[in-house]
Each structure stands twice: as structure tokens, then as C-alpha cells.
Design brief:
identical protein binding; 401 residues; 14 helices; alpha/beta; four-stranded mixed beta sheet; Aspartate Aminotransferase, domain 1
Length: 401
């Protein structure tokens, strides 16, 4: 069978509009398409491929577990799931872990747990969930409604209720909404899809204090920021606050689908037997791969290397900007960076992304005005330098029109 981009239009639901490029293999931070054209990968599958493509430790974990046991169901537990849960609790504030298949499912579990906890401990009046405009928490109907982008949640009929949206980095807007009827405040410790917006330290600490004052749970969506992306194992560890519930996915499996919700024993007890579940959640294959990811990423040299690579990428983007004057600022932390376009080039992030691909570089956007970079945490320095050179060619192409 000949596989072409046209086949997509014939057989796939049209909710995506993928580019003409069909990658067929990857190694480290490089990818090759059907025509054997090579790309440097600054996209990382949207912050997923945290160790690049086909990392030996992950290939080994997948291959070994693939010869042993793939799936059981949660009628029984399994060794990889228990080892992974122990490693996650050792590395974080959490005592307990729930496994799912994705970030959306981890967030769904977090929101259901928050509602169940509030109902059990405080009563029916305590059901309000506060999140933030421009936030993104997944595509299930509950998570997409909590997410602060109406374009993703409109058009599907009545939405789940008692959800309010404040403005990120605006503590007064949270204060205006929060009350003793609030069960949880959900936020990203660095907004991803919303444009790579870093949190103001006083804002994050202020939200924590408001949650404490009103007996509301603080939920950190670390789907994009977690597993070393910002230079800490989880972003909360650099912010001086501890959430009550944390969600993790994307990089957790390094490219294999897995999600996790982490919380304390006291909160976790409200998801008692039968209240929530997942057919594949915690299956041995996913957990074996994720365990290998955690073993590699939690090394101090890998986390220190993230900060070193951030500096190289930032410096390179600043140099390109000195030449072409297209960016208003370089935002973000670690290897979750956004180059925000200035007024002259507003709305042209997609044009830069397309030009980058022509020059052999894969990058991302975060809205119409921000070019986003989420490369492998262990991307070789030479690949960063060469990738920046290719990105500069793309910027020059867009500038010259």
C-alpha cells in the first residue's frame, strides 16, 4: 500500500490538518521523512519526546517488557506500575498515584477527585472549580470546559457547570471568584498553549494562600511542565508552593501514552473502590517505559543540562532577533520556550513554523503569535546550534516575504 498525505483526507476524521511531511524514523533529535529529508526536532512531539527518538534506555525497557507482559486489567496490579508509583512518590510531595493514558485523563481524574473530596468533607455546596483564561487541560468535556479557551469547548451542547475562569497572573481576579463554595483552583505552573506565560512568584503563592483560606484544593496541571521540562523534576519544586494534586503525562512516557495523577493519602482516600477507573491505566508496558524515563531524567546531570540548553537556545534566539527584529520577548523556562512575535509580525507564527520545516527544522506554535520550542531534554549541543541556524534561515525567509 502506498501511504501518502492524500490518504489522510480519504480515511481520517478531518479534525486535524497535518502538513505534507510524513516522518518515518527518528534517532535522538533528528527525524527523517518518506523522502529521506532530515529534520532537527525542536518540537519533541509537543513536549513529549523528552529523551528524543528511540533512546536506548526506552527501547530496552519497551523491548524487555514486550516479551513479558503487556496488559492485565486493574483486577490485578503489576510490578512496573508499583515501581513507577514508588519512584514518583519518592520524587514529589505525593503519597499516592493513579495511572491513566493521557494528560486529559489525568486531569479528569484530578477534577473528579476534587469534587468527590469536597462533597465528602464539606457538602454539596462546595463544587465550584476556578481555572484561568487561555489555559489548556485536555479535550474531554470536563477538562475542555475547565480549560480557558471557549473555541475548544463551544459547540457541543450544555457544558459541565460551576466552572469559573480568572486571569493568569492576576491575583485580584482569583480573589473576586473564590469563596467557601470553591472546591479547587486548577492551573498550569507555566501556561503552555496559552502562549508560554511564566507565573509571577507572588501570584502562585497568593493562589496557594487563597486556597488555604477557603479550604479549596490547589491542582497543578504539570502535563507539559513536568518530568524535567523546566529544569526541575516538576515545576512546582522551583516555585515555593506545593499543590494538593498534581497531574503528569506527555514526557512521562517519553512518547509512550501514559498519564498520572499524584496526591496525598488524605485526599486520595475519597476515590474509593469503584469511584473511578481506566481499562489501560497502569498497564505494565506503559509503566515499564515511564520507569525508564524517570530513571534517566531524574539524574542531576540531565536536569542541569536542561538549564545549559535553555541558555544556548535563548542566546541563539536573541542573536537572530538582533539581526531581524521579529520577537518582542523570549518567554518560558527550561526547554519550554516561546518566542513572542512583535507587532510587525503578529499572527505569523504559523508562517515561521512552515518555513522552518522547509529548512529542516521542526518547531511548534502556541497561538498565532508565539513560536514554541520543546526539544528533547538531552538534545546534543551541536543539534541546538544547527537547529538555530536553520531557524534563522526560516526567519529570514518570512522577513523577506
Amino acid at each position: 500500500m502506498q501511504v501518502t498525505r492524500e490518504l489522510f483526507d480519504d480515511v481520517m476524521v478531518p479534525n486535524y490538518a497535518p502538513s505534507a511531511i510524513i516522518p518515518v524514523r527518528g534517532q535522538g533529535s533528528r527525524v527523517w521523512d518518506q523522502n529521506d529529508k532530515e529534520y532537527i526536532d525542536f518540537a519533541g512531539g509537543i513536549a513529549v519526546n523528552c529523551l528524543g527518538h528511540c533512546h536506548p534506555a526506552l527501547v530496552q525497557a519497551l523491548t524487555e517488557q514486550g516479551q513479558k507482559l503487556w496488559h492485565l486489567s486493574n483486577v490485578m496490579t503489576n510490578e512496573p506500575a508499583l515501581r513507577l508509583a514508588k519512584k514518583l512518590t519518592d520524587l514529589t510531595f505525593a503519597d499516592k498515584v493513579y495511572f491513566a493514558n493521557s494528560g486529559a485523563e489525568a486531569n479528569e481524574a484530578a477534577l473528579k477527585l476534587a469534587r468527590r473530596w469536597a462533597l465528602d468533607v464539606h457538602g454539596q455546596h462546595k463544587s465550584q472549580i476556578i481555572s484561568f483564561s487561555k489555559s489548556f487541560h485536555g479535550r474531554t468535556f470536563f477538562t475542555v470546559t475547565v480549560g480557558g479557551q471557549a473555541a475548544y469547548s463551544d459547540g457541543f451542547g450544555p457544558k459541565p457547570g460551576d466552572i469559573a475562569h480568572a486571569n493568569y497572573n492576576d491575583l485580584a481576579s482569583v480573589e473576586a471568584l473564590i469563596s467557601n463554595n470553591t472546591c479547587a483552583v486548577m492551573l498550569e505552573p507555566l501556561q503552555g498553549e496559552g502562549g508560554i506565560i511564566s507565573p509571577d512568584p507572588d501570584f502562585i503563592k497568593g493562589v496557594r494562600a487563597l486556597c488555604d483560606k477557603h479550604n479549596a484544593l490547589m491542582i497543578f496541571d504539570e502535563v507539559q511542565t513536568g518530568v524535567g521540562r523546566t529544569g526541575a523534576m516538576y515545576a512546582y519544586q522551583d516555585l515555593g508552593v506545593t499543590p494538593d494534586i498534581l497531574t503528569s503525562a506527555k514526557a512521562l512516557g517519553g512518547g509512550f501514552p501514559i498519564g498520572a495523577m499524584l496526591t496525598t493519602t488524605e485526599i486520595a482516600k475519597h476515590l474509593k473502590v469503584g469511584t473511578h477507573g481506566s481499562t489501560y491505566g497502569g498497564n505494565p508496558l506503559a509503566c515499564a517505559v515511564a520507569e525508564a524515563v524517570i530513571d534517566v531524567v531524574s539524574h542531576n546531570d540531565v536536569l542541569a543540562g536542561v538549564m545549559e540548553r535553555e541558555q544556548l537556545l535563548r542566546d541563539g534566539l536573541v542573536r537572530i532577533n538582533e539581526k531581524y527584529n521579529v520577537f518582542a520577548e523570549i518567554r518560558g523556562k527550561g526547554l519550554l520556550l516561546g518566542a513572542a512575535l512583535n507587532d510587525t509580525y503578529k499572527g505569523q507564527a504559523k508562517a515561521i513554523l512552515t518555513a522552518a520545516a522547509e529548512h529542516g527544522l521542526m518547531c511548534l506554535i502556541a497561538g498565532a503569535d508565539v513560536v514554541r520550542f520543546t526539544p528533547s531534554l538531552v538534545i546534543p549541543i551541536a543539534d541546538i546550534e544547527q537547529g538555530l541556524a536553520r531557524f534563522e534561515q526560516a526567519v529570514a525567509q518570512v522577513v523577506k516575504g
